[in-house]
Design brief:
Blueprint lengths: L3 H14 L12 H8 L3 H13 L3 E4 L3 E4 L6 E4 L2 H8 L4 H4 L4 H6 L6 E11 L2 H7 L6 E11 L8 E7 H4 L16 H7 L5 E11 L3 H7 L7 E10 L4 E10 L3 E4 L8
Parallel strand pairs: 3-10
Antiparallel strand pairs: 1-2, 4-5, 5-6, 6-9, 7-8, 8-9
Length: 262
């Protein structure tokens, strides 16, 4: 049997989903909800806390409780890598304004704000092992943050690593001012005669760190999905390693596996 606070939360949740309270609308005060449901203050507060943890409402100190605006969602499917490879050999001018984020979100380039930073680091042990290079080998670490222009939190936290000497033949690949690069990493690698053969993705999940929760603006209790993406070329070399932190409240992972017929 549902508890009293769950019944209140169910009623308010239904009202939000049916549009009685729309995005940005203020909910009745706690006193009004106590009178409406004939329940105590702690019971009403427990119901609001539950909805806040679900990301449906936002309690603003001194102002009240408001319905959250729905966040733009991203659907990350396993066909995206072939989609990117199919485009890698096209001229850059044909690729502008239609990258992986647009593919995942359905948004247009004009709807997005993109930020990239590059820095050179010495390969720590785990990345040295992944690339098969000595520790301390020069890597290009590329940090990306892309968000919907109407929001303040990025879709994900991304850091991609390349072996510097592997891509240095094209100096443009070392300069963050050339971002966003039309066609993404596979097109970048194509400019130095590297063809990606396969992409391996490993997913885990955990509670966010305080920094991750703050940057991704996660509702309380929301987990993050961790992705280690490793790209191999046709010579079986690791050519790109990317660490991606995805917000669990607005990311969908979609995997379709074609099966061979008998």
């Amino acid at each position: 049997m549902p508890k009293a606070y769950e019944e209140i939360a169910d009623d308010l949740r239904r009202s939000i989903r049916e549009g009685v309270y729309g995005p940005g609308d203020q909910l009745p005060s706690e006193d009004d909800l106590m009178r409406r449901f004939r329940r105590s203050g702690p019971t009403v507060q427990a119901a609001l806390t539950l909805l806040n943890h679900e990301g449906l409402i936002d309690k603003q100190h001194g102002r009240g409780t408001f319905v959250r605006h729905p966040r733009a969602r991203a659907v990350r499917d396993n066909a995206r890598h072939q989609w990117e490879k199919d485009r890698a050999r096209r001229p850059q001018a044909q690729l502008a304004g239609n990258g992986a984020t647009e593919h995942d979100t359905g948004l247009q380039a004009r709807d997005l704000v993109f930020h990239a930073e590059y820095r050179e680091i010495g390969a720590p042990r785990d990345l040295a092992e992944a690339f098969g290079v000595p520790e301390g080998t020069a890597l290009l670490a590329r940090t990306y943050r892309t968000r919907c222009a109407a929001e303040t939190a990025p879709f994900s936290l991304v850091t991609s690593y390349l072996v510097r000497d592997m891509v240095a033949a094209n100096p443009a690949l070392l300069d963050a001012s050339n971002e966003p690069w039309p066609g993404g990493t596979q097109h970048q690698l194509h400019t130095v005669a590297i063809e990606v053969d396969r992409v391996e993705e490993r997913f885990t999940a955990r509670p966010p760190t305080p920094e991750e929760a703050r940057e991704l603006e996660l509702p309380p209790g929301t987990s993050v999905i961790l992705l280690r993406k490793t790209s191999y070329d046709i010579e079986d070399r690791v050519v790109d390693v990317a660490d991606v932190t995805l917000p669990g409240d607005r990311t969908e992972l979609l995997f379709t596996t074609p099966l061979e017929r008998w």
